[in-house]
Amino acid sequence: MLVGLFLTPFYIRTLGQNDYGIWLVGLQVLTFLLLVDFGLVGIVPRDIAHASGLEKSEPETDRLAILVTQTTKVVLFQTLIVALVSFGLFFLRPSNPSLRGPIGLVLAVFVLSYPLRLFPAVLQGLQDLKFLGQLRIWLWALSAALIVILLMLGARFYALACGWCLQQLAHDLVAFLRLRRIRPNLLTLEVWKRSRPVKWRWFLRGFWVSVSQTAYSLLSGADILIMARFLGPASVVVYSCTSKLVTILSNQPQILASTALPGLSQMKTSESRERILQTTTSLTQAMILLVGGIVCIVLAVNRQFITLWLGPQFFGGMILTGLLVVNYLFRQIDNTLAVALFALGYEKLSAIRCLIDAIVSVALASLFIRWWGARGVVLGFLISAIFVAIPIDGFLFMREFKVSVFQLFRPYLPYLWRVALIGSLGVLLTMRVSIPSVFTVVTTVVSVGLAYLLFVIPHAWRSPLGSYLQAATTALRSGMRSRLLGWSNNS
User: Fold this and answer.
1) What is the enclosing helix (H) or strand (E) of 450?
2) Of 133, 134, 121, which is closest to residue 255 (Cα–Cα)?
3) Element at 369 (helix H, strand E)
4) How far is CA 422 from CA 133, 251, 286, 323, 341, in A?
5) Per-residue pLDDT for 47 more than 80?
6) DSSP letter string, 15-42
7) Residue 97, Cβ density class (10 Å: 0-12 exposed, 13-18 middle, ≥19 buried)
8) Whole-angstrom Cα distance, residue 263 to residue 283?
9) CA-to-CA distance for 7 and 151, rounded, in angstroms?
10) In 3D, which of 64, 25, 398 has the Cα closest to residue 227?
11) Do 283 and 260 touch, CB atoms closer than 8 A?
12) What is the spatial distance between Cα 28 and Cα 41, in angstroms, rounded to a whole number?
């Protein structure tokens, strides 16, 4: 987070606001290349977790190795399609001629590393989460250092491209080496021969996930594209800076939800529906607990923070900030429900819901931007989240677990009104600060954070989430005690 906050003003000073906006838009366009995998890689963690659960009850089965090999064959075939699409994109004339070389480099590395994308997904399915987290941290640090050095040497867009390529290629390659070390039986010539030739149904296995990924790409990246189309690249930078705190701080709740997917999928093979419902409820409460804290802090300090960080001209206003955090809150609640439904095999219905949500969001955002600018874009996505995404996923969830609307939302209402109260106090607090300073930002963060914890944690401790919090607290105390004893013995 600290590196990201440092790099943004450095990028703007080095590249200029307009060129940096063009780079942000280009990265969003690049994500659409991932859609040619028909959703196969997206479904791999769930299928691997499911096969891993069956492997524990049937140790002699080779189902897991066959699944990895079959998916590898499909991904190798898809690489040819990716290469052709990338070749076509390279010859599209960019708006900035200096982008042609960096775009070519990014596309070449993207094609070369594409088959390796499978292996981080396999590790996630095997729940090797600690290694994946450490790998991302190290690669982020190395790529950030490379970008800074190359920008100081005058490489401009090549610096950003090289940093992106290092992170992309090294992440997938190291994941492949890790899988070869911990599970060498999954990638052998014998299993390759027994997995049979590529069949069309292997591609169709992830079709609905592909539909869902297409829709999710629109939900996560279309706002920037709409902004660039109607308001220009420079406005994208203001919008991106205003939402920067939300984007950075949202990583932890998103990681929590994504890492829970393999566990929920594995529970499907051995646990009752009541146990899965309890786990999902606790997971959603944990998401609201984390997201609520982020919402309250961002509302309280976003204006002060951006004014000190980049200058007041990069702050899009408190109304935009409020819309961003409210949209973020409801999107994360829906995301937890969607993760649980996907783990239980609802990929078809979830994909249709996601597609409807994306179409409505983009349509409303494209309409509202004409009247309210950037605020209209976020408003369009927020309306779709409240009236499309959550109602559909809620209905599917109620049907699966046979609960009423009241039973579904009752565990979350006490968190939501507490978040609304502390968030409102945070807004009032920031409005009283006329001249922002580092001291006022730190004081505001500490005050709002403590108020939130004191107001929310006692309720969380008594809720279904409480058993998980108590277990985590016990484990933390035990770990700290062991370390202190170890240090005292060594000294």
Assistant:
1) helix 438-462
2) 133
3) helix 347-372
4) 32, 22, 17, 16, 31
5) no
6) H-HHHHHHHHHHHHHHHGGGGGGTTHHH
7) exposed
8) 12
9) 11
10) 25
11) yes
12) 19
Q: In whole angstroms, what is the distance from residue 418 CA to residue 430 CA?
A: 19
- Between CA 70 and CA 344 the distance in angstroms is 22
Spell out the domain ranges in the chain.
Answer: 1-37+40-205, 208-486
d(C-alpha 44, C-alpha 238), whole Å: 37
Q: How many other CB atoms sit within 10 Å of the CB of residue 85?
A: 16
Burial label for 255, CB within 10 Å (0-12, 13-18, 19+), is middle
Inter-residue contact 224 to 261 (CB < 8 Å): no
Region of 127 on the Ramachandran plot (φ > 0 left; ψ -120 to 50 alpha; else beta)? left
How many whole angstroms separate alpha carbon 124 and alpha carbon 175? Answer: 10
Q: Please tell me the predicted confidence (pLDDT) of residue 42.
A: 63
Residue ranges in 16-127 assigned as alpha helix (H)? 17-31, 40-57, 63-90, 100-113, 118-125
* Residue tagged 């960080």 (tokens): 309
Q: What is the mean pLDDT of residues 307-312?
A: 86
SS (H, E, C) 135-163: HHHHHHHHHHHHHHHHHHCCCCHHHHHHH
What is the model's pLDDT at position 33? 61
Distance, in Å, from the CA atom of 225 to the CA atom of 486, rounded to the nearest integer, reads 54
Size of the chain, expressed as the number of residues it contains? 491
Query: Tokens 């942000």 appear where?
Result: 24
Backbone angles phi, psi at 401, to 5 degrees: -100, 0
CA 218/CA 76 separation, integer angstroms: 26
DSSP secondary structure of 309-354? HT-GGG---HHHHHHHHHHHHHHHHHHHHHHHHHHTT-HHHHHHHH
Give the up-direction half-sphere exposure of residue 154: CA atoms within 13 A in the CB hemisphere: 0
Amino acid at 261: L
Q: In angstroms, rounded to a whole number, what is the distance separating the alpha carbons of residues 434 and 287? A: 33
Measure CA 348 to chain center: 21
Q: pTM for this structure?
A: 0.71
Residue 339 near residue 264 (C-beta atoms within 8 A): yes
Q: How far apart are CA 315 and CA 313, in angstroms?
A: 6
What one-character DSSP code corresponds to residue 434? S
Report the distance separating Cα 148 and Cα 150, nearest Å. Answer: 6
Q: Which residues contact 280 (CB under 8 A, 6 or more apart)?
A: 264, 336, 337, 340
What is the chain's Cα-based Rg? 23
pLDDT digit string, tens, across residues 60-109: 667 777 777 777 777 777 788 778 877 777 776 555 666 778 878 888 88
The token pair at 92 is 């599209």
CB 358 within 8 A of CB 381: no
Residue 310 has a CB neighbour count (10 Å cut-off) of 19
